[in-house]
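Q: Give me the 3D complex with zinc ion.
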Amino acid sequence: MEEKMSGIVLGGVSFGENDKILNVFTLEQGVVSAKIKGVKKAGAKLKFASEPFCFVEFIFSKTGANRTVIGASLIDSFYPVREDIVKYFCAGAVVEFVKRFYLKDIVSPDTFLLVVSALKGIAYGDNTPKVTLINFLVSALKVAGFQINLSGCAHCGDKIDGRVFFDYRSGAFECEKCFDRTGREVSIITLNALIAADNGTLKEDDIGTDKALKLLEYYIEYRTDEKINSLKELIKICH
Ligand SMILES: [Zn+2]
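A: Here is the predicted complex, encoded as C-alpha cells.
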C-alpha cells in the first residue's frame, strides 16, 4: 500500500550500513517512523528527506506496520536554522516539543500547523527566533492541554500589576492578595512578556523574553516531567 503524507522530519537513527529510521511528524497521522534506504551513501538521492527540520511530502510504501520511504519532494528545508546557533536551538526546541508531547499516532493538525509556522518564522520571519519560539510554546502548550492561564489572577480574576506568583502545578498566576504559598514569585516582566506572546504583540528580545523562556522551560519540566534540552541550551547561551 502507498501513502502520501506531508511531514516534518524530527530526526533519525542509523539502521544497518546505509539506511536510517526516520521519525516524522505528519499532518495526516501524527508521528510515524519510516525506513529510508541508502541515505548514508555519498550522493544519495533522498538524503535531503532525512535531515531534521525538513518539511517534505513523502510517499511511503506500507507493509503491515512498517513504512519505507519510496519518494519525497522537499517543501522547505528551513535552511537558515542550520546557520545560526540561536535559530538552531529555537528550531530544536520546537522539534523536541513534538517528540515529547506527541507520541506515535497522536494526530494534531493544529500542532502541525503551529510547528510549520514556527519553523518558517524562526528561519525567515520578521520576529526574532526567541519571540517566535515563545509564541509557539504558549500556543502549543494550550493545544497539548497544558495551557498557561494568562487571563489575570486565577483566584480573583483581577489584572495583576504588582507582585505576581506563578503556580507551576496548575499553570496559573496569582496576585499578592490571593497568594496562598503554593506558587513562586516571578517578575511582572515575565508575565507581561507571556501575555504579549499570547495576543501576538511580543516583538523584540529583551529581558522579558529571556525570563519568559526560563519560566516556560521550568513549567514544562515541572508539569510534564519532560526536558526540552534545546531550550536549556538556548537559555544558557542567552547570558
Ligand atoms: Zn487575586
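A quick observation: Residues 207-224 form the longest helix (18 residues).
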